[in-house]
Each structure stands twice: as C-alpha cells, then as structure tokens.
TrEMBL record:
Membrane topology: Multi-pass membrane protein
GO cellular component: endoplasmic reticulum membrane
Keywords: Acyltransferase, Endoplasmic reticulum, Glycerol metabolism, Glycoprotein, Lipid biosynthesis, Lipid metabolism, Membrane, Transferase, Transmembrane, Transmembrane helix
Compartments, record wording: Endoplasmic reticulum membrane
Identification of the protein by name: Acyltransferase
Catalytic activity: a 1-acyl-sn-glycerol + an acyl-CoA = a 1,3-diacyl-sn-glycerol + CoA; a 1-acylglycerol + an acyl-CoA = a 1,3-diacylglycerol + CoA; a 3-acyl-sn-glycerol + an acyl-CoA = a 1,3-diacyl-sn-glycerol + CoA; a 2-acylglycerol + an acyl-CoA = a 1,2-diacylglycerol + CoA
Top EC group: transferase
Pathway(s) it belongs to: Lipid metabolism; Glycerolipid metabolism; triacylglycerol biosynthesis
Statement: the UniProt record of this protein carries the keyword Acetylation: no
GO molecular-function terms, A-Z: 2-acylglycerol O-acyltransferase activity; diacylglycerol O-acyltransferase activity
GO terms under biological process: diacylglycerol biosynthetic process; glycerol metabolic process; triglyceride biosynthetic process
Length: 335
C-alpha cells in the first residue's frame, strides 16, 4: 500500500483539529483502561490516602449517572471541542420547533463507529444546540458499563453523558414542566458492526423499550438522522455469516459492547490510521411525534407508536438525503 503523506504547509488550525479528534479517539479506546491501571497502581503501592477516600466517595456517588449525571460547563467549553467540531465539521439542523413544556426522546441514527455526531452536538458547547433549542437540556445516554470504570466515569460525566438504563431515562424524562431531552442511540453497539460507508442499516425493529418509556413518561418522540456518520471510518469486511462477524456478535453479547475493526487515516498521512476521515456530519432533527402519557401501555399501543416512529424516521431520511449527497436509490434498511 502506497502512503499518501499530508502536505507540510497545512494551516495550524487544521493541525489542531486533527489533534483534537485523535485524542478523542484515543480517549474512547484507551482512557478507561488507563484509569483502571492508575487505580490499581495506587492500590498496589498502597497510596491509601488517595484510593481509600476516592473509593469511599465512589460508593456514595455510584448512582449519579442514573440521576442526571454531573456535567461541567467548563469541560464542555474546552477549546479542544471547538477544534473537534470544526474538523468534520459537525452541523445540527432543526426542522421543527419543540414545545419546552414537554420532555422529549431524540432517537439518534445511525450509531456509526464512534457516534461522533451525537458527542459533538450534545456533549460540547460548540454545536448550535443552545441556539436552536435555548430552553432545553440534552442528555446523551450511553452504556452503563462506561460508568463502572473508576476515574474515567468522572471525565465522561463532565461532558454530560448519563446512563442509558431505565432508571436514568425515567429520571431525565420525569422533569416537571418539561425542557429535558434524552438522546438515545437506538441502534446500539450491534449497529456499529454495520457502520460501513454508503450503508444505511438500522437496528430498530426489536428496539421497543424506548417507546414504552415514552408512553409511561408522556415524552414526545423525535427521530434524528445524522448524515455522514457512517462515512467517517472504514471497517474490515464482516458480512453476516462470516467468521469475523460471528466472533464480533458473540463478543458483543458477552461484553455488552461491540468491537468493530475500523480504520481511516493517520495524523501525517491519509492512507491508514485511526483518525476519522474529514467528512461533514449533518445531524437533522425531525418533527416531534406527540405521545399521550399511558402508565400501563398495552403491547398494541407500543407496537402502534413504534410503527409510527419508524415511518417518521424513514420520511426524515427520504426528505433530506438528496441535500447531503445520498443517491436517490439508497434507502434505509430496518432490522
């Protein structure tokens, strides 16, 4: 493979953008393990005056990710996140006004490999979220396993993510007077294994828990499609039935998260590496689907609302795909 090196005269701003994205990828892949290693070293070398207070505090703080988290406006305003959002760049597009007297569930699609659009739009202060939705607070819900990693959980929560558990969702969506948005990447880890460029496979048909929560909480549903999310990385070919996909599926069921074998470009060359491609991300927020609170919804009510949600999601994709370079014959595949 012939390496294509980056020019030496690239502006400093673009270098900073690449560095910001690279540190984000490394944080996603390695920071949790590093934090666990630091804690183990503190225990191994008996720095009890550091780890005992922290573990004691951790015991009492364990439920915080299910109770709205602990975001830091200072961390969300770090300049590194501005460079991160400018790298792709990331855009948030509003198609309809939202009534701030209600709470909402944003169903985010697709998962992509690392959900860059969801992070950039809802976990930093450099997206247009507050300009478009000034009366709302958004909570990105992620796998609970990330909050079980000591030290790393504090860094993660500082940007605003909370657990995707039922308790966490109900906590956010039960806010009296409205104004809260739960952002859920509905395809989950399983969908990331199908995050190939030019492919639009969404794992949604069996994902009905969010619909039941919407009904019990009276939260309006809003489909969100992030155009460009699947274009950021390439994956090693892993079609259904292949040995690689079989291993990935089994590991995903055991560990709760997927291990896509992805690659893109490097820091100083464009041929291979873990830095995502510089592709624009346009996250389009659709029209709200009104939901009447039903404390004990029937399976029929859940199914009906789920079908409505999938129809609205498909309409959103079809209406906007041409604006972002997707050929007319491409369509969503629901699994």
């Amino acid at each position: 493979m012939k390496l294509e090196f980056a020019p030496l005269n690239i502006p400093l701003a673009r270098r900073l953008q690449t560095a910001a994205v690279f540190q984000w990828v490394l944080s996603f892949l390695l920071l949790a393990e590093v934090c666990i290693g630091i804690l183990l070293l503190l225990i191994l070398y008996n720095y009890w005056f550091l780890y005992i207070p922290y573990l004691t505090w951790l015991y009492f703080d364990w439920r915080t990710p299910e109770q709205g988290g602990r975001r830091s406006n200072w961390v969300r305003s770090w300049a590194v996140w501005k460079h991160f959002n400018d790298y792709f760049p990331i855009h948030l597009i509003k198609t309809s006004d939202l009534d701030p007297s209600h709470n909402y569930i944003f169903g985010f699609h697709p998962h992509g490999v690392l959900v860059a659009g969801a992070f950039g739009n809802f976990c930093t202060n450099y997206s247009d979220f507050k300009k478009l939705y000034p009366d709302f607070t958004a909570y990105l819900h992620v796998l609970p396993i990330w909050f079980r990693c000591p030290l790393f959980r504090e860094y993660l929560m500082s940007s605003g993510p909370v657990s995707v558990s039922k308790k966490s969702l109900c906590y956010v969506l039960s806010k009296e007077g409205g104004g809260n948005i739960s952002v859920i990447v509905l395809g989950g880890a399983e969908e990331s294994l199908d995050a190939h460029p030019g492919k639009f496979t969404l794992f949604i048909r069996r994902r009905k828990g969010f619909v039941k929560i919407a009904l019990t909480q009276g939260a309006y549903l809003v489909p969100v499609f992030s155009f460009g999310e699947n274009e950021l990385f390439k994956q090693v070919s892993n079609p259904e039935g292949s040995l690689l996909r079989t291993v990935q599926d089994k590991l995903q069921k055991i560990m709760g998260f997927a291990l896509p074998l992805f690659h893109a470009r490097g820091i100083f060359q464009y041929s291979f590496g873990l830095v995502p491609y510089r592709k624009p991300i346009h996250t389009v927020v659709g029209h709200p689907i009104p939901v009447h609170q039903t404390l004990n919804p029937t399976p029929e009510q859940v199914e009906e609302l789920h079908q409505t949600y999938m129809e609205e999601l498909r309409k959103l994709f079809e209406e906007h795909k041409g604006k972002y370079g997707i050929p007319e014959h491409h369509t969503l595949v629901f699994r």
